[in-house]
């Protein structure tokens, strides 16, 4: 698995980390428990099985304004739900997303949920929340808060080698 991800400015990253820690304090599964080298708040632009180059991105201008809105949920499988903050799309973010996909059109096994027109930009707070902890998880967050900041960099993540490469 390989991906291209946007990284948040320091203030916005700290706000998201604060939400991870509040979930941890409440005993709820959250991203702070993920100990991998790639673990930090980010927005995934593209996710594929193979063929995503770690070359510098073309036609990409950073920073891009980010507005993290309401909490959103993905899935409801046996492993629980994914809790995230919606990244409210703006023109610049959508153009950047399309440019990344255009540059990596030869990638194989692109996750349909990351394709232009199907992508829901978000920052993950937790994976695997059991349904009986969902209300408690939402109660730990200020669900009315709008977190503002910027995407200041982009990275390539290659899970097969655990390699992280700055690409913008």
Automatic annotation (TrEMBL):
Pfam (any one): 2_5_RNA_ligase2
Molecular function via GO: ligase activity
Matches recorded under InterPro entries: Cyclic_Pdiesterase (IPR009097)
This protein's record includes keyword Ligase: yes
Keywords: Ligase
Highest taxon above the source species: Bacteria
Annotated protein name in UniProt: 2'-5' RNA ligase family protein
Organism listed in the record: Naasia lichenicola
């Amino acid at each position: 698995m390989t991906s291209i991800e946007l990284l948040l400015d320091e203030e916005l990253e700290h706000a998201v980390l604060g939400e991870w820690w509040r979930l941890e304090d409440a005993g709820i599964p959250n991203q702070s428990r993920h100990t991998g080298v790639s673990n930090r708040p980010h927005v995934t632009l593209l996710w594929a099985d193979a063929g995503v180059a770690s070359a510098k991105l073309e036609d990409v201008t950073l920073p891009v304004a980010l507005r993290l809105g309401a909490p959103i949920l993905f899935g409801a499988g046996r492993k629980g739900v994914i809790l995230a903050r919606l990244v409210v799309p703006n023109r610049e973010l959508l153009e950047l997303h399309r440019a990344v996909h255009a540059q990596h059109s030869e990638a194989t096994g692109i996750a349909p949920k990351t394709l232009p027109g199907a992508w829901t930009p978000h920052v993950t707070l937790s994976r695997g929340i059991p349904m009986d902890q969902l209300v408690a998880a939402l109660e730990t967050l200020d669900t009315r808060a709008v977190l503002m900041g910027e995407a200041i960099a982009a990275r390539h993540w290659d899970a097969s080698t655990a390699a992280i490469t700055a690409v913008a």
